[in-house]
Amino acid sequence: MKKVFIIVLLFLGSFGVQAQELKWETDINKAIAVSNKTKKPMLLFFTGSDWCVWCIRLQKEVLKTPEFKTWAVKNVVLVELDYPRGKPQSDKIKNQNAGLQETFGIQGFPTLYFATAKLNKKKQPSYTGIGSMGYVAGGPKAWLAEADEILKRQ
Asked: pTM above 0.70?
């Protein structure tokens, strides 16, 4: 009876792990540290989460799917750089995101930029871009195929 109980608990626990949300970093320095530690590139998601129709559509059709979650855990460190119109943000995050928008030359949303970074002696990041993309029609399969092509460049 104990064995059955333990098996049921393990089975139910596995659903809890799968249902967990992905970790999207919002602090670029923390993301760089995780990227360097795990040897995975960052996926910088430049979004207007509360006003950009294509950003919201991308979230729904791709970024919140099981296929994307499985792929992301294996391949990248996720970084959300949000430019909301109605949601409050700290000045620190606003300034960080504005600087990164300028650094990467982001002109439209959504833009997803793959990059690595190293910190110099002054703790200033030096970025190496791998490639960028936006919304891709066709759901997770089409989006992930394009993302995989970009990651092959590194």
From this structure: yes
